[in-house]
Amino acid sequence: MRPLSRFRTIGVTLATFGMLAAPLYQADAITVKPLVVDLKTSGRGMNQVVSVENTSAIAVPVQLTVQELVVEAGETHGTGKDPGDLVVFPPQALIQPGQTQTFRVQYVGDPALTRSKHYYITVAQVPVKPKEGESAVQVVFSFQVLASVGPQGAKPALRVQSVGVGKNGAGKPVPIITVANDSSTYGYLSHGKLRVVEKDASGREVFRQTLAGPEIEQQLGMGLITSGQERKFTLAGVLPLPEGTIEAKFTPDS
């Protein structure tokens, strides 16, 4: 009797929506970039490329799948369903050691969108079955690339809707802001500047902080806000007063 193989696969999924702060992610086997894809409903912007590099010493099989995202109560999650709005070619590939495979992503959905739509493109490392009689524990990675598309010609309209004082993990007072997007298309909080000011009871300014795009990205990720939605963000700056008056303003990059 031939010995049975003992094989266990451990999956690690790397999501991008909430805290994405870099244009690529690298694991032991593959590097994926970019992790955020912006598409148009027509013209050249309908197509974008996702590159997957095999940084390991063995060939890595990779498969790409699509699922739509929905926004509920300010939170975004995958539906697990592919509506057919995106086409990925090739859908799978065997990437040799040290080689890079490009995958073309194309929007083929409704060209007359009235609101932005969002998707996860999952780049998954396919587990390889070991040889007969071998024992192995295999760690496979999957990466969720955020793909977004908005109505042609629309621009985001982000504004600070409300601001207050909360607490960080150490119990210190920190600003909490709610940002709304009144546009028919999506926007990124990291594509602008955020100014926060605190004043005491007499109106004297006791705190001022201006965060540029890279600083916002480091603290909050890209800060995606979909069309007609709002999101709440907790900032890292510690306020000198727990009961001061807080003001905040967002200015988009020109």
Distance between the termini: 71 Å
Q: State the order of secondary-structure elements, H for helix, E for strand.
A: EEEEEEEEEEEEEEEEEHEEE
Share of helical residues: under 10%
In DSSP terms, counting alpha (H) and pi (I) runs of 4 or more, how many helices?
1
Task: Name the assembly state.
Answer: single chain
Q: Give the C-alpha Rg.
A: 22 Å
Write the layout of secondary structure elements.
Elements lengths: L5 E9 L10 E2 L3 E4 L2 E4 L7 E8 L5 E13 L2 E4 L7 E4 L2 E4 L4 E8 L9 E9 L9 E15 L8 E10 L5 E9 L5 E2 L3 E8 L5 E7 L1 H8 L3 E2 L4 E5 L10 E8 L2
Parallel strand pairs: 1-12, 4-12
Antiparallel strand pairs: 2-3, 3-5, 5-10, 6-7, 6-9, 6-11, 8-10, 11-12, 13-14, 14-19, 15-18, 16-17, 16-20
Pfam families: PapD_N (PF00345)
Organism: Sphingomonas oligophenolica
Protein name: Fimbria/pilus periplasmic chaperone
